[in-house]
Amino acid sequence: MLNIIVLGPPCSGKGTQSEKIASLYNLTHLSTGDHFRNEIKMRTPVGLLAQTYIDKGELVPDSIVLKEIYKKAIKKIAKNGIVFDGFPRTEHQAEMLQRSLHRKNLSISHVIYIDVDEDELIKRMLNRCQNNSGRSDDNAEILQNRIAIYKKQTLPLLEYYSKKQILTKISGMATVEEVFSSIRKAIDARLNN
Ligand code: AMP
Predict the structure, then answer these.
(1) Domains in the chain, ordered, with CATH?
(2) Distance 33 CA to ligand 1 centre (A)
(3) 3 state SS of 85
(4) Catalytic residue positions?
């Protein structure tokens, strides 16, 4: 079983790369952002609550995220494994994920960190805003807040997973296919270890 976490700042391409990883290794792609956007579309209570945070570029509180993730992922854990996209985003979420997996005798196999310079992130963000991605949180001001929150709350996870010796840093300053090729090499190298 292969359980992979894809970490990266907003606009680093983690959604695209997670989808490609899931497809190549036959894993379930679990995007917490997509999950919440879906709940918002269906106007469920969780969606409406999550929207108040997402629209400000803030993180949805851990209590809501963990309940949703437990419902979706851990309970019906996929046969081959999961690509976690956008989760965990805080050390508390990481600890809770580890505990839930441990109870099922499972663990995180690999954490892929997609590294993109801040200048490039801002360029991509402006592009995404201009091209109207359809996401309510894709506007310049909110995106700046998402980067600030990412730095404060999610970046510490690099050290957390680096200490566990399961983190690989991949440069995201290349084309989608080039980045994916580096990711694939890193995953294969770990699998063959
Ligand atoms: P994403 O699609 O991963 O960029 O997520 C979009 C938004 O959903 C984030 O800016 C957060 O508001 C919320 N979100 C997604 N995943 C999480 C998470 N693991 N913890 C808290 N909030 C999250």
Answers:
(1) 4-184 (3.40.50.300)
(2) 5
(3) strand
(4) 14, 89, 128, 135, 146
